[in-house]
Amino acid sequence: MKDSRDLTQGNILKTITMLSLPIMAQSFIQMAYNMTDMLWIGRVGAGAVASVGTAGFLIWFSFAFIIIAKIGAEVGVAQSIGKKDNLLARDFARNALQLTIMFGVVYTIAMIIFSEHLIGFFRLGDTKVIEQAISYLKIVSWGIIFTFVNPVLSGIYNGMGNSKTPFYINAVGLVINIVLDPILIFVFNFGVDGAAYATVISQAVVTLIFIMLFRSKFAPFEEFHFFKKPIPSVLKKIFAFGTPIGVQSGLFTLFATLIARIIAQWGPVPIAVQKVGSQIEAISWMTASGFSTALSSFVGQNFGAKQWDRIAKGYFTTIALAGTIGIFASFMLIFFAEPIFVVFIPNDPVALRLGTDYLRILGFSQLFMTLEITSQGAFNGLGKTLPPSLISILFTGSRLPLALILSASTILGLNGVWWSISITSIFKGVILTGLFIAFLIRHPDVTGPKTITQLIFKFDRRAWQDKRGLSGI
């Protein structure tokens, strides 16, 4: 197999870091797509931000389907490489792509036909905002097939241990989007529609580059025949790996949409604030996602190779890295909320006040959010995607009643909604991290020391194995 990297050998800290950095950069590229739109659209007005933000919930919901094929490809390819079964890895890649294209076509048709009803669900109460949201959604929907395909193609490379290639390709799309946004929004005066066109064009170029690479001498697989008949057993595995996370993602978006309806009673400005604030907060989320995806590939390959001690140390090493980022993010959002938010909506005092409150409140949960996301990556690498999904669904769903209760307070008001998000994130991080640590401690094949400090700092593996006459892993 070409363009693959063996993650079952070598220094763990270096392996995780080198694998996660391009994935993080790629995650920031995806975030930058949205932040670039927000930077320019924010200068059109808060109403324009609200319209894009509202349509964005429906685009966001598509990831419930994308993630099924992406996780299926990522985990399936990684575990197959760990088992040295390259043909099975190719089958996982091909079947995942076939599945995501089918999902993409169906989703495109649904978004175009039902766009007015879907935007109407939010009860925005502003005719211009509603019209802009519908127009934006229709344009993006015509190119959403590219949004479906690109994460799965990236996931295939990540599972192979090659995170640099998708980073370079997605970087091209980012540059195109950055260039096109101001041109289409202001020079051609397309407004909100210009941002939609820029997103579609840039995503289409990314897909085209991936296709050209798959058809070149640098293709990751030999004899990759896309139109070959799907394999039921492989599709079953893809669904087994990806469905729990897909359901989690879909329900997360549904809960967020219902939260948006609660927020909408305060008008369109808080919706714009949440949209911009969530993009700022996503810096730590995207960083943790980079570690999570890297850890998933690392654990997947070592699971296939049955290297359990390496899985344990890899987990604690990654948790230490992600936790450091979480602490830094909490510090920045709590103490520098106002100067950060004013960059995105500079001329609206009300939005600035609400946005500052949002960032400060969400700042208290950043560490726990990074721990949750990283731990989920470890579970994913093992193919045990159900436990973290159940925990996420339970506590994310609890945001709805908690938001209603807290926001009804005359003291908290709208801030009660933000506190419901932050509090539940804290619970998810503590519980999921505790579960995976307990799993490692109790697992019979994890034979080395099992405390965090021993695994990361004080564990001399060679001396420990020599003392017991064990072979290296």
Could you explain the architecture of this structure?
It is a single chain. This protein is mainly alpha-helical and 473 residues long. The chain has one domain (12-462). Helix content is 80%, strand content 0%. It is built from 20 helices and no strands. It has helices at residues 12-41, 46-61, 63-82, 86-113, 115-120, 127-142, 144-159, 164-187, 192-214, 232-264, 268-304, 308-335, 337-341, 349-363, 366-382, 386-397, 399-407, 415-442, 452-458, 461-468. Helix 4 runs antiparallel to helix 7. 54% of the residues are buried.
Please supply descriptive tags for the structure shown above.
20 helices, 473 residues, 0% strand, mainly alpha
Sequence-ordered SSE layout with sheet pairings:
Blueprint: H1 12-41, H2 46-61, H3 63-82, H4 86-113, H5 115-120, H6 127-142, H7 144-159, H8 164-187, H9 192-214, H10 232-264, H11 268-304, H12 308-335, H13 337-341, H14 349-363, H15 366-382, H16 386-397, H17 399-407, H18 415-442, H19 452-458, H20 461-468
What's a concise summary of this model?
By secondary structure, the protein is mainly alpha-helical.
- Strand proportion, as a percent range, falls in under 5%
The main sheet comes to: none
Count all strands and give the number. Answer: 0
Q: Which structural class is indicated by helix and strand composition? A: mainly alpha
Order of helices and strands: HHHHHHHHHHHHHHHHHHHH
The overall pLDDT average reads 87
The helical percent reads: over 70%
List segments where confidence is low: pLDDT < 50 over at least 5 consecutive residues.
455-465, 467-473
What's the alpha carbon Rg, rounded to whole Å? Answer: 22 Å
Work out the count of structural domains. Answer: 1
Separation, N- and C-terminal Cα atoms: 23 Å
